[in-house]
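Person: Please comment on this record:
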Amino acid sequence: MATLLLRSLCFRRSLQHSSRPVVDVPLRAGSHGAPLLYPDHIPTTPLQKMLLAAGSAGMALYNPYRHDMVAVLGETTGCHTLKFLRDQMKKDPEGAQILRDRPRISLSTLDLSKLQSLPEGSLGREYLRFLDVNRVSPDTRAPTRFVDDEELAYVIQRYREVHDMLHTLLGMPTNMLGEIVVKWFEAVQTGLPMCILGALFGPLRLRAQSLQVLFSELIPWAIQNGRRAPCFLNIYYEQRWEQSMTALREELGISPPPKLVQGLA
């Protein structure tokens, strides 16, 4: 149901987008007469948001690797939390600068050769290593579509694009165990419903050995560091590429990650 509704809404949006002239013009109204607030925006009614939220939650719990469903869930359930996060960013000098500059993280904005030339142990070099070892790309993050506020749409887009940066900072791999640990950290820091759901229900997919390590070591570590560290959305990572990971973790109060047992997932 959610997948069909999502495809229908995206199809309508693609038709509107394809009919738009190449020259710059104001964004047209969506299917319900609501204005398009940013290029990928799809205006939806409260009922459509509710259906998308319910369906995407079921699909995301069934298959946590359905990143499209996880993205829809975050956008349709996190409005009030996104306002809180936006306000927290505005109160922080570094966070406020991020909101002003609107930096994006993608292969088109990253200077990979510069990151490669940075010293071993620096944030930029470790982030590049994370992308290479885990065979992930920053371009896989879905654009925001269902948030009916342009500034809040950027906040959740920023959250998605620094997710891999958070993996790097916390020293967590992209397997199921590592993702759950990051979700616990994010849930404590942001309160986003999709993070809380992922943190609570993700362990259901783990083996007994992994569960033991998760509950005895990793979750307590993630909660402790999530409470102690400042909000990860207030870190202007692009201006800190040369900073050493050790110094950055010390600044943020993040203790070294527990040593994960090889093969746990």
Summary: Confidence is low (pLDDT under 50) at residues 18-26.
